[in-house]
Amino acid sequence: MLAERTLGRTKLAVTSVGLGLAAVGRPAYITLGRDEDLGGDRSVATMRARSWAVLDAAWAAGVRYFDAARSYGRAEEFLAGWLNDRGIAPGAATIGSKWGYEYVGGWRMDAERHEVKDLSPAQLHRQLDETLGLLGPHLSLYQIHSATVESGVLDDDDVLGALSTLRAEGVAVGLSTTGPRQADTIDLAVDTGVFDTVQSTWNLLERSAGPALARAHAAGLGVIVKEGVANGRLTPRAAPAPLEAAARERGVPADALALGAVLARPWVTTVLSGAASTAQLRDNLEAVTVAWDDGLAERLDAMTEDPDLYWATRGSLAWA
């Protein structure tokens, strides 16, 4: 059963598991096994139909947080079309999106580059207008996409001022983080006092952001966890032996156990499923049935990787 929770100091209602649309909004992504998941037909019409099928299954299961981004190909477009076609009123679901990357892949599998990062104030204003043009009153949360300390975006008064204005107009604001120094970014974001939420990578392989996320939670921010199955590395097709064995003993898929580990953190508000199919979503949602205990934690602690190694491995994954 999905638990309903309040997203930090906002009044936004989310569920313990949300749905991220990175895997179904564009033809290529860095999740393992996409040929098996999607087959060869990655046309716009086919991907739209796939995204709607996953959205329908998520809605039927009680999922009420949906996460997109400007760089997720046509994810915002697909989501907006689904919301309107299904007659879902603004506020019936919490809808988040992100700015800062632009999709430049041209709907090609073999594109030289699929996205380009730009965290300038001009990009914020342009992409916010594009997002509002699609999602309009459905937009509940707008986030910086992959903020880092090095990018300087958290020291940019124009960006912070524009986000504060958006917040005053009733849209919550947040950020997502990336890289081996996520903790530094999270702490800096909390110190600004501007943000309502933080979305970060935490999984059984990459746990370094945990203490900073606990601090963010204590400061009143909603905590959204992404990449809980490590872009497919913690799913049945690639699970390390200890996770595979523990999942078999518990009678759940490896991805459900991995997401269950996330939900066991007391500072987590919601964890995102990145399912590309209804079958994957069904497996992911079994995470809510996982009974986490100290024995299980001890067995899986050895899976943790050095953050630099983890992010180097992630950076080497092919777009497919």
Number of strands: 12
The CATH class designation is: Alpha Beta
What is the N-to-C order of secondary-structure elements (H for helix, E for strand)?
A: EEEHHEHEEEHEHEHEHEHHEHHH
Counting helices, strands and paired strands, the structural category is alpha/beta
Domain NADP-dependent oxidoreductase: 48-303
Protein name: Oxidoreductase
InterPro entries: AKR2_Oxidoreductase, NAD(P)_OxRdtase_dom_sf, NADP_OxRdtase_dom
Q: How does this model look, in words?
A:
Helix 2 (44-61) packs across helix 3. The mean pLDDT is 98. The protein has helices at residues 34-38, 44-61, 75-85, 121-135, 157-168, 182-192, 210-218, 241-250, 254-263, 278-285, 294-300, 307-315; strands spanning 4-6, 13-15, 17-20, 65-67, 94-99, 101-103, 115-117, 139-147, 172-177, 197-201, 222-226, 270-273. The strands form 3 sheets. An 8-stranded parallel β-barrel has the order 3-4-5-8-9-10-11-12, surrounded by 6 helices. Strands 1-2 form a two-stranded antiparallel ribbon. The radius of gyration is 18 Å and the shape is globular. It has 12 helices and 12 strands. With 320 residues, the chain is of the alpha/beta class. It has a single domain (4-314), classed as NADP-dependent oxidoreductase domain (TIM Barrel, Alpha-Beta Barrel), CATH 3.20.20. Helices cover 39% and strands 17% of the residues.
